[in-house]
Amino acid sequence: MSAYHPLTAEEAIALAKSLPGIFSESTVLNCREIGDGNLNLVFHVTSENSNESTIIKQAVPYAKVVGESWPLSLDRARIERQALEIQHRLCSDLVPEVYAYSDELAYTVMEDLSEYTIMRKGLIDGNAYPKFAEHIGQFLARTLFFTSDLGMNQQEKKELAGRFVNPDLCKITEDLIFEDPYRNSANNNYSANIEDEAEALRNDLPLHFEVALLREKFLTHAQALLHGDLHTGSIFVTPESTKVIDPEFAYFGPMGFDIGAIIGNLLLNYVAQPGWNQNVENLSIREERLLDMVKEVWTHFEASFRHLWNTELLDEMSKTPGYQDYYLTEILRDAAGFAGCKMIRRIVGLSHVADIEGIPDESLREAAQRKALAVGKNLVRHHRSVGSIYDILKLVQLASTEIGVSK
What we know:
Elements (H helix, E strand, L loop, with lengths): L8 H10 L10 E5 L6 E8 L5 E7 L2 E2 L3 E5 L3 H16 L7 E5 L4 E4 L6 E2 H6 L7 H14 L8 H9 L4 H12 L16 H9 L1 H16 L3 E3 L8 E3 L4 E3 L6 E3 L1 H18 L7 H33 L10 H26 L5 H4 L4 H21 L6 H14 L5
Antiparallel strand pairs: 1-2, 2-3, 3-7, 4-5, 6-7, 8-10, 9-12, 10-11
Helix pairs in contact: 4-10, 8-11, 9-10, 9-11, 9-13, 11-13, 13-14
């Protein structure tokens, strides 16, 4: 019989005390549950008389955002922990360290990042993160290259992929991103004032065709081990440092999905900027900074990925002239399409983003929602014709112009 049960704060303290090397023996510990996500409990354990602290994250057997009517496998805690361990090995300065875990109790004890800011909040506040694009580009390049057929033995990759079969959380992605926004679904959630937009999504068959192509990639194209949910709420930042967390959606899929998730979330913040800035000059600076960040994320990823290809490649056939350029163009096209799907989902789907939902003024919030949908649809419609990151930026600006948003 399983010993699993949701931990209490007192049990989290006892667990933290039992682990060597984290807290001094005589210290008094405090604990509070800080989880604000949809799937887990998160305990922050701190010392009263020192700076020692840790995080204990425990999966619960259902989606918190819905309740016990949406059951989920606790094996996702193992998947997340193993993904963190792999990512930390490949990018030790960009991923928190795992201290301990229990697969039976579905918890992971890891490095505390309280001195960092959740990137989504930081962007809403208008903060700049000049090192972020370089850091996330390196993270994406190394984690994707070294878990692909390019950077690891193909048979070992197949064995690794078997440990990351993640049907419950992949089902969430498949439904919420690639299906629900395009049909009448009980999971959809949007305000009545954009019902016309939701209806248009349901009736846009050419758009459905492009989404179906992207969905097929997500379902079948096992290129590399993905984070699987790499949005700005899963990244902690300071102006000098970046830490990627929460890879419980990890599975083997198309590389462009992780890259598109980052780009799509930066663009969600971009379209929301008029709702947070009444100063025209500040608005222009922040919008330009976000678009430049989108460009630099791809630029740093591409440069790092090409360097790894040229120096660490294991697959002999991939040395064929022209293949590297083709491969990266396909990743970029996938990233553009997945970014668009991510943006659409966050406006009409189950789970929204504070970048837009938090805008105080209703009319400005609606304008941001409509702009997000326009940009998202443009990226999805035209993702197969993208040839450079500048094509993506042109699609963003064209969609903004078409809905009458001043640049």
